[in-house]
Amino acid sequence: MTRVLRTIAAVGRKEFRQIGRDRRTLMILLIVPVFTLLLFGYALNFDIRHVRLAVDDRDRSAASRSLIAAFVNSGYFDLVAGVDASEATRLIDRDEVRAVLVIPSGLSRALQTGRAAAVQVLLNGDNANTATMVMGYAVTIVRSESAKYAGPARPPLISIEPRLWYNPELRSALFLVPGLIAYIAMITAVVSTALSVVREKERGTMEQVRMAPLDAASFIVGKTVPYFAISLSSALGIVLVSMLLFGMPMRGSWPMLITVLSLFLLGALGLGLLVSSIADTQQVAFQVAVLVSFLPTIMLSGFVFPIASMPRVLQLITYGVPARYFLVALRGILLKGVGLATIRLELAALGIFAGVVLLLASVRLQRQWG
Amino acid sequence: MRRVQFLIWKELVELRQDPRLLAIVVVAPIVQLLALGYAATTDVRSVPMVVVDADRSPASRDLIARFSASPNFSLIDTVSSPDDVDAYLERGRAWMAVAIPPEFGARLLRAEPQALQIVADGSDASSTNVALGYATNLLAAYAEEKAGEAGRAGGAGGAGGAGGAGRIEPRVRVWFNPRLESRDFMLPGILALLLLVVTTILSSAGIVREREVGTLEQLNVTPLRRWELIAGKLLPYAFVGMIDVCLVVAVAVFWFHVPLRGSFGLLFVLSMDYLLTTLGLGLFVSTISSTQQQAMMTSIFFFLLPMMFLSGFIFPIENMPVVIQKFTYLLPLRYYLVILRSIFLKGVGLETIWPQAAALTGWGVAILSLAVVRSTKRSV
User: Fold this and answer.
1) Which of B162, B165, B314, B332 has the maximal Cβ count within 10 Å?
2) The pLDDT value given to residue B286
3) Which of A 291-350 lie inside 8 A of B, CB atoms?
4) In-domain check, residue B84
């Protein structure tokens, strides 16, 4: 047993030394993830403000000016230009404005004589989500402006008291950070493990390793331990930075957080090993690693695109994406402070994923070893 | 020129000897596009929700039926006590809970104003926002309908209030994507992203691989000039990239029915322009790295990730802080995305998107020149 441990330690030491010599890769693995989080944490935002608006005011009355003021004062729209009809098309085409407000010439007369007047809002709908939200803002502003002319308002029959749990201000950072952790951890773990094994194959040093008094299992464990340590510390770094700078709450327990992180990373490392058993060159390894980790983790995990909106078949596929469980568990621990009982299914799924890929990888690598 | 031809031939032979790589760079983008094309919808539909029905009257059942009939919601469960909601929200099984208070039906009959509480899970901020919007609209429509009924029941006079005064009605017209399908917007973006991933990674290994395997020495003793080395590396990958462009556009148009309103010729030419930048970028990374691992890590963290998140692919640039908005002008993907979306959805031509095309060309020329300058063949 001690002999096995010693060989594992030897492989681990070799790997650490190799990583240590490649300063840039080590830096990329340890520091860049935190930096990436900083950049994205500040940059990314789903809140839509400062929508560029052009106005085609054909009425030029007190009423039309008041309506324009209502748009500008809402804080959602920035008035870019006053235009006429022909120019509006050009501005939208060239993305200089996202919305054009067209006020018909009869607005103030209609309001005085107690008739209805329609104002038109032209929207660039290329980004459907943004357009939906802008549409909501515009309709609300016009309605509330309209209510001013409607006389004393009756209270609505049913009003709504929304209450937001876990993230009452709906801050994007709190929602994005767990996703970014999953994303960054996945990439570093899968890619670096896959490359570390395939590199030995490609350079021919695999032969030397194989001749050493070493079995496949100790080789695999020795290879994984350093990357496990590195990715765990970089993931913890991200969590700490997000707590310090983005006010990410930590409502759950640390041991559970570390357990979840470890399980997820184990799965990722196993996936990396599995990739390395398939690929013979680093180029292939990298392409495969990116395809199995990079895109699914962001697209199929519920990080950006809601799983509930996907077609049935694809929803089934998302059950095979570990980031899906990781996200639920991580948000649960950080934002909701849930206990073990609540996320036991997610933990089990992560454990099963890690077990299966590690098993598959070691079977394949063992076969290649012999 | 002959020497470049030989190098191209050598690269193609190498590519063919590695059938796995060839398969990956040709087949994988299509598979990914198929999967991601379905996944990449930011539309929020069938929001999982629970209802707390403390009233249990015909009116509350009627309201619940409205929620379960709406495609925007998927009713998971109806519970009777607000305490039962916690478990659903904690485990993420439901995103929101609507609490119908006791006496809801009775008050509705008396046309008394009342408040309904909605509890929503804020940990997924963007979807929650949309879901709340849906619930608000549904309840507003319901309340209006009930008010109308109460008005009619109470005699014709009660329905008034809207009759006498003038009002402004909003008419929203959405251009380019009137059904507000997020897929039409996302798919061109996925095309750009796949091209970026496949070609940058492919070429980032280009020179550093020769260095690592030790064959760069052999290339060094040939009379090959620097720019010839770069050109010979670039062209075969560009060829692969062009195939990818055609395949992926075909899938987007014929499978997903994304409207291609502009000209395919223009799209193709500008895609070549874009390939110039992604391949140039890869080769540049290759010249500044000493191992393939370095090259790949560098291209992922310094180029792919920032481009993916900051180019406007998912997160609108106009929402970013001003400093970062300026920074995004450095990303070629930003320009290509505008080009793609303009050609696909708006059907505009070069007269509108020439600034983007020019920026892309400039970027490509600059990065390739840098790669040529940096590729001092002899440094190992």
Assistant:
1) B332
2) 86
3) 291, 294-295, 298-300, 302, 304-306, 308-311, 313-314, 317, 328, 331-332, 335-336, 338, 342-343
4) yes
Domain final residue, candidates B140, B170, B188: B140
Residue B378 makes CB contacts below 8 A (sequence gap 6+) with B220
The arithmetic mean of pLDDT across residues A102-108, rounded, is 86
Give the count of beta carbons closer than 10 Å to the beta carbon of residue B91.
18
Interface contact B320-A44, CB threshold 8 A: yes
Do B143 and A158 count as a contact with CB atoms less than 8 A apart? yes
Residue B211: burial class (beta carbons within 10 Å; 0-12, 13-18, 19+)? buried
Distance between CA atoms of A101 and A98, rounded to whole angstroms?
Answer: 10
CA distance A1 to chain B (A): 33
* Same domain assignment for residues B244 and B355: yes
Alpha-carbon torsion angle A139, A143, A146, A148, nearest 10:
-140
Residue B172 lies in a domain: no
Interface of B with A in 179-208 (CB under 8 A): 180-182, 184-185, 193, 197-198, 201-202, 205
Residue whose entry in the numeric block shows the structure tokens 């940096």: B374
Identify residue B152 by its one-letter amino acid code.
R
Which residues does chain A have within 8 Å of residue B197's beta carbon, measured at their own beta carbons? 290, 294-295
pLDDT confidence bin for A348, thresholds 50/70/90: very high
Q: Which residues contact B188 (CB under 8 A, 6 or more apart)?
A: B252, B258, B337, B340, B341, B344, B345
Q: Is residue B149 part of a domain?
A: no
CATH 3.60.40.10 is held by the domain A51-148: no
Residue B170 falls within a domain, yes or no?
Answer: no
User: CA of B31: which chain A residue's CA is closest?
Assistant: A291
Specify whether B321 is located in the same domain as B362: yes
Q: How far is CA A200 from the centre of its chain?
A: 33
Confidence of residue B158 (pLDDT cuts 50, 70, 90): very low
A-chain CB neighbours of B108 within 8 Å are 157-158
What pLDDT digit, counting tens, does each position of A200-234 carry?
Answer: 887 777 777 777 777 777 888 888 888 888 888 88
Containing domain of residue B366, as a range?
2-41+180-374
Q: How far apart are CA B92 and CA B81, in angstroms?
A: 18
Strand partners, A16: none
Chain B contact set for A122 (CB, 8 A): 173, 175
pLDDT in tens, A91-101: 877 778 888 88
Q: Which amino acid is at B102?
A: P
Smallest CA–CA distance from A88 into chain B, residue: B175
* Statement: residue B161 has pLDDT above 50: no
Is residue B139 within 8 A of residue B116, CB to CB? The reply is yes
**Residue B45: predicted pLDDT:** 77
Closest CA to A192 of A97, A268, A267: A268
Q: Say whether residue A46 is in contact with chain B using an 8 A CB cutoff.
A: yes
Question: Is the pLDDT score of A153 beyond 70?
Answer: no
Chain A hits for B211, Cβ within 8 Å: none
Q: Choose among A49, A94, A335: nearest Cβ to B319.
A: A49
Distance CA A184, CA A187 (A): 5
Predicted complex ipTM:
0.72
**pLDDT confidence of A265, banded at 50, 70, 90?**
very high
Handedness of CA B329, B330, B333, B339 (dihedral sign): positive
Put simply, the answer to whether B114 touches A160 (Cβ < 8 Å) is: no
Cβ contacts of A33 on chain B, cutoff 8 Å: 301
Share of chain A above pLDDT 70, in %: 92
- The rounded Cα B228 to chain-centroid distance in angstroms is 37
Please name the member of B162, B173, B197 whose beta carbon is closest to the beta carbon of A123.
B173
Residue A55 and residue A198: Cα distance in Å, rounded?
60
Residue A2, Cβ neighbours under 10 Å: how many?
6
